[in-house]
UniProtKB/TrEMBL annotation:
It holds the Pfam family MIP. InterPro entries: Aquaporin-like, Aquaporin_transptr, MIP, MIP_CS. Keywords: Membrane, Repeat, Transmembrane, Transmembrane helix, Transport. The keyword Manganese does not apply. It is a multi-pass membrane protein. This is Uncharacterized protein. The chain crosses the membrane at residues 20-40, 118-138, 150-172, 193-215, 235-253, 265-284, 304-325.
Amino acid sequence: MLIFVGCASVQVNENYDKVVTLPGIAMVLGLTVVILVYSLGHISGAHFNPAVSIAFATCNRFSWKHMADGSRNGNHGISLTVKDDSVQNSPCPPCPSPCKPKPETSLLTFSVPFMQKIMAEVVGTYFLIFAGCASVVVNTDFDKVVTHPGISIVWGLAVMVLVYSVGHISGAHFNPCVTIAFATCKRFPWKQVPAYIVAQVLGSTLAAGTLRLLFDGKQNVFFGTIPAGSNMQSFVMEFIITFYLMFVISGVATDNRAIGELAGLAVGSTVLLNVMFAGPISGASMNPARTLGPAIVSSQYKGIWVYMVAPILGAVCGAWVYNMVRYTDKPLREITKSASFLKATSRS
């Protein structure tokens, strides 16, 4: 079904005057995969791809003998839930409390879990910037084949899939604005902020460098963000759209009343919408790392201060405004008595 539906969309697009369009073909393939994973993932793992089966087998997540001893719950293949197999892979069986890992100390140490978080931020930011900026380059070099709505979809879907991929590891920030905004609200330790920001900028710069190498023989395309009009116009736009993004992130990621399972969908959709209407004006950065990486690689810094200042201010304001509206179901005197919104949250 995956091959039939995907190839049918390609054939229809060729035979009927590009009626499906390239973004349409991409959406058909993506939605088909989503449907089939939810339909068959609990039965076979929903690989549909020899590369996936081989990769899982090399990691001992899939039996080389086609799971002759296999289980039906799909935990050797694609799983729809996140599982903690730390106990399963432990060299010793479960033991009483004296053998439990020691709690983390207040000092920042480069422990294995922390380095895993940093690596997740580097890899996640890399693929986010690579996919999003690649869509810009391809659209410019190949006669607008991706289209502006297609670019918006790429950015939104990239954010969504990466949130679901590494959100449980690092929080899936990929953005210094998000990291700083959470820190100002005491939802992220300040001592880890510099490491996260360095990881995000590194991932963005590596992605921009990769694209520069891939498209070096093409037109001189700048895939960063520069103001299309005045700096002030872009400043205001970046402030507003980053405020909107961080407001949504605060809702789905920090409020227990929100449906956390839909966090990736909500955040990705917000990015898609912002890129759709703000892209032609400011480039819809919402992310200093997204702007800084391509700027470093291309040595183009026009209006760079706009994208370093406005998104951070917008994100901090968005996070704090959500903290204020979070308590609309409580009497005003309870809010004003609280030393901070976050302390009240911990009690509720």
